[in-house]
Description:
Elements: H1 14-34, H2 49-69, H3 73-77, H4 79-96, E1 98-100, E2 103-109, E3 112-114, H5 116-142, H6 147-151, H7 154-174, H8 178-183, H9 188-193, H10 198-216, H11 220-238, H12 242-267, H13 271-281, H14 293-304, H15 316-319, H16 331-363, H17 368-392, H18 410-434
Antiparallel strand pairs: 1-2, 2-3
Amino acid sequence: MARNENSIFYGVDRITILTYALLVVLGWLNIYAAVYNEDHQNIFDTTQKYGKQLIWISGAVVIAFGILLIDANFYTVFAYGFYVFFLTANILVIWLGREVKGSKSWFRFGDFGIQPAEFMKFATNLVLAKFLSNRTIIVNQVFRLRLKDLIKNYKNTLIALLFICVPIVIIKKLQNETGLAIVFIAFVIVLYREGLSVTFLIFGLLAAILFVVSLVVTSLPTLLITLAIIAAGSFLFVGRNRKNLIVVIIVYACSAGVVLGTNYVYNHLEPHQKVRIDVLLGRGNVNLKKEGYNVNQAKIAIGSGGFWGKGYLQGTQTKYDFVPEQDTDFIFCTVGEEWGFFGSTGVIFLELFLILRIIFLSERQRSDFSRIYGYGVAAVLFFHLAVNIGMTIGLMPVIGIPLPFFSYGGSSLWAFTILLFIFIKLDSNRLLILR
């Protein structure tokens, strides 16, 4: 931490920056291993993916310094501006962008591409922090309420959810980017930290369980009848009166709605999306040479690494391209095969350490804006980490989202860098607030 308050490093958390730098370097080395071949051994060769990634890393360093140079209040003042700008960019890409793997979500500049959906994450985080912190200031002055009391006001909760849902609709429906759209659900975690009743979380988890059950149990009448029997039993157990009857009917109606809705959504999915769900749940006879190939090869690669791994650049599954997308969505396979269980655990530990560090820093913030934004950063990183590794080892459907700071790609690296370093700047400003 720099002692001169005029320095850009004044108040900057060095532990967070060092963890970020370590993850980025390890990611670069794994990208090199994922696409390594004996004909191209120069790690600085910009004609190869690892060389291009080094260019993106250099750009990320410049962006990080740029963010630290800008006054922290800039991000508070222009939060809505960032949101509108990137929302517009995500709409314009539909007409001006190029289609890549079925998704029209990329602006192309020669050999490089920018995906505006990635940058929408930090813009959404900024606008959520701005909206919730602004409402806190107004309410504290007029009604003397705390932020957690404010979140219980459904009007403001719905507005906050609207900020989250608009990018989801645009990215999923217009760009056909399911994976990136789902990531925005992580921001709901921020609302719970700021006081949203845990009852909503419980109902959400129950709905998620029922959603999975609806996919596993293929007989719709059987499931509805089973729910009806459970509802009747619950009514007899809790007491037979009019109030309990109304509650049981409402709960059953909602449960039936989830079941019917799940069935409707599944039947209207794209064929490849249905296949991914079937592979995850083991429905039908999964062909390991076709629809089940990616996940099966990923498991083989990770399992073959054993405890210590095969050694750097020694992974056979990686070297002979058995795992598709092994430098992007399935980069964790390279870690598992070459570094083994020990190395994989180390990578997960580093990612979790960064997330926990961000949460720790968030709790010491002097402003609501900084705290809310920090929890948004932690939520997004955790969601990416859990889903990416989950889909690699077959615990979640393959939806194609990168592993933070590891997967190849400039858009994701730059977006994560911006997301993180804005918070680092906000945290450093805490010392100036205390003065």
